[in-house]
Structure formats: C-alpha cells, structure tokens
Design brief:
heterodimer; A: 280 residues; alpha/beta; Rossmann fold; eight-stranded mixed β-sheet; 36% helix; B: 71 residues; alpha+beta; Translation Initiation Factor IF3; four-stranded mixed β-sheet; 4 strands
Amino acid sequence: MSGDSRRGFLRGLAASVAPARDAPAPAPAAPAQLSDPAIERYSRQLVLPEWGEAAQVALAEASVLVVGAGALGSPVAYYLAGAGVGRLGILDDDAVELSNLHRQLLHFTPDLGVSKAESAAAKLRFLNPEVVVEPYRVRLEDGNAAELVAGHDVVVDCSDSFATRYALNAACCAAGVRLVEGGVLGLAGLVMSVKPGSTACYRCLFPSAPADAPRCADAGVLGPAAGVVGSLQALEAMKLLTGVAPAVCDGFLQIDLASAEILRVHGARRPGCPDCGALG
Amino acid sequence: MGVPARTLDITGLTCPMTWVRTKLELERMAAGEALEVRCRRGEALENVPRSAREAGHAVSVEGTTIRIVRA
C-alpha cells in the first residue's frame, strides 16, 4: 500500500473519531479502530489515563517531518516511529561519520559513509513496519523550505545551524505548520513548540542568531544531553499531535544538565515579527 | 440498570492487557452504558475493578464478572 493510499485509509478511519489535535476528546460510541497487533504494540501508552484510542489514531493519521537525522533527530524519529506516527519524513544531506556515533543513536559502525537519512530510515522500518518512512537526502534552505514543510502536521527541527532554524521557522509560520524547536550544546539545551499565529514563534523569542554562535562541530556535546533534548522534542510533537497535554508554547525550556535544572522561560508573540507578525 | 450490557472476555489475557482491552472498550462506549467483563480470579479480578474506579467509572463485582458503568 503506498504512503498516500495508506494515509487516505487512516484519514477515513479517523474521520469517525472525535478529532484529537489540540484538545483531548474522548470518543463515545466510536467503532473499533486499532488492530489487535496495534493494541499490543502500543499497549504501554494506551494504558495511560491521558492516552487512548483517539490519541493513537491521531498519531497514525499524522505526518511529521524530522529535519536532521543526527543527535537530536535520532531519538525524535525513534520515539515517534515507536509511538506510531503514521508518516515520518527524515531529512538529512550528510553521511554517517565515525565522530557521530557517540550520540546519534540510529547509526552504527557498519553505517559509516551511508546517507544519514537512509541509515535512519532503515532502522525505523525495522522498529515499526507500520510507519511510512520517507528519507530526503537534501539540505533544507530558504529556497526549498516551503516545499519540504508542506503537507506535514508537525515539523521537528533537529538541525545544528541557525540558518536552518530560521528558514524552518519562517516556512512553518507561512504554511501554518506546527514546529518543535530544539538545540543542544555541551551540557545545555533548549526546547520550545510553536503554533503559528497563536503562540510565539522562534523568531519572536530569538530575533537574530547570536554573533558568536558555535556549531556542534566546534563546540562538542555529550550524547546523553542530546538524548534528553531530543526526547523532550519527541514528547512535544506527541503533545501537539494528540492534545493529551499542553506543549511548551509561548516560551521555552532552558535545560542545564550540569546543574540538573530545567527552567521554563515565558515569552510572548512579538508584534511586527517578520515571520509570524502578519498571522491571525 | 435494565439496559443490556456489552460484554468483554479477558480470561485469556494478563496484565496490563486486561485493563488495556477494558479501557479501550469503555472508550468506545457512551456515558451511562454498561460493560460486563468476564475475567479470571487473581490479578485481573483485583486490578481491573481498581483501575476502572480510578478512571471514575461505577464498578460492581459478582463472582468473576465485573460490571462497569461508563462515567
């Protein structure tokens, strides 16, 4: 079954269920949606009071683009595939290098030299054959961001450059696609979610890149620190897709893993923001 | 209580699938509808009524049959 027809099938299934995008909605008198193997595969999340069949179907119906298949993208894609997101786009134009392996969980030593998007996609298909995984071996830039973002329900930014971050933020705002931002450096990280037109976007809170911004290649990162930030990003995506709990919007989480402190910093939409100022 | 209840047989299941199946069945029902769950003695008979009560439903147990009215 192709990705498109599978999506159509899932959309049809989900149409009879109460929508579960931004508000949790129990579905009284809804017909059975999940197959027996799906109930078993997802049983440890279905058993949660906050979760349920409507949330599971909302995930199966969803399409998520993960930008970057490295230290952040690995846990993000792993958890979203494992949780049952219906369609996952994995975008990365790099190949696996030896220096990646201490933190990029989806790549292994035999993958050296292989496209990260393809390497990640292969592991994700093993993890959950129900998920349609689409690798994109391209670099996201201003010129192609709109096209790449189109059609997704949520985009998760797991890139390591401010240029990509701002290109994605602008494209997601223009297309009305929800965005999960994340970054990690050393033992510190940041996570925030954006609902374009209703909550602060990345540029609202960070109008321009820091002049002395180091890249991961220059600055170093501990694998588990990236794992923490990526795991939080995956959770944010699941919250946005199902509404089971509020995402971190209008602000960000400032994560200091040296002192083991997480601070929630509050912010607001900035009037005149070049990316989202003209929206709703 | 005169409404015919839905039935669910979880005698072949173990924790946590006993509650997962019961919970999904309840999600598919309307408020006030009743579900009769047939289970084995032991873990399921101890845990499913407790989980159902914690989820806010009305529960009564008779032998190995658990009757749950959806909240």
